[in-house]
Write a structure and sequence with these properties.
The chain is an alpha+beta fold. The chain has a single domain (5-135), classed as Glutaredoxin (3-Layer(aba) Sandwich), CATH 3.40.30.10. The chain has three helices and eight strands, in the order E-H-E-H-E-E-E-E-E-E-H. The chain has helices at 14-26, 42-47, 126-135; strands spanning 5-9, 30-34, 55-57, 62-64, 73-82, 85-96, 99-112, 115-122. Strands 2-1-3-4 form a four-stranded mixed beta sheet, with helices on one face. It starts with a strand and ends with a helix. The structure holds glutathione. Glutathione is lined by residues 13-15, 37-38, 51-54, 65-67. Residues 13-15, 37-38, 51-54, 65-67 line the site of glutathione (GSH).
Length: 139
């Protein structure tokens, strides 16, 4: 059974609750990492640069914003251990408008004291940006 994803946030937040409902419907186990954004330290800023909750974090990715978290479906393809973390090769199905893009990428996850420190995601964003532009209603 896969490890539960970590949801940084609080049940008090409607944005967090929206994500929890989606995880529940999809049968994805989660663990709440409770935080009050105004009391979060630098680790919280690294996870969530705008210092907002929720944040979803697992071994493959860190995602901010409740409108993004439920829509990307990530699959881990391979995992290569590093000295202080792991290099993950992932695949994602990303809905954009009427299309669903298939994207492959990598991310590095570094661990310090059992916590995710930097988590960097790398992928070719050109197809994603083009699809977002094409799906955007013309103004
Ligand atoms: N667009 C964000 C909004 C999230 C948001 O505003 N969360 C509130 C909690 S309900 C927050 O983190 N507030 C912290 C602050 O404003 O300092 C999302 O959908 O996730």
């Amino acid at each position: 059974m896969p490890a539960p994803v970590r949801i940084v946030g609080s049940y008090l937040s409607p944005y967090v609750r929206k994500v929890l409902v989606c995880l529940h419907v999809k049968g994805i186990a989660y663990q709440i990492d409770p935080i009050v954004p105004s009391l979060g330290d630098d680790r919280f800023s690294r996870l969530s640069p705008l210092r907002r909750i929720p944040v979803l974090a697992d071994d493959t990715v860190t995602l901010c914003d409740s409108s993004v978290i439920p829509r990307w479906v990530w699959t881990q393809r391979d995992s290569i251990p590093l000295r202080d973390g792991v290099l993950n090769l992932w695949h994602a199905s990303v809905p954009v408008g009427e299309r669903v893009l298939d994207i492959d990428g990598v991310c590095t996850v570094q661990l310090r004291g059992g916590l995710i420190a930097p988590n960097q995601v790398f992928f070719d964003r050109s197809e994603l940006l083009a699809a977002i532009r094409a799906a955007r209603p013309s103004r």
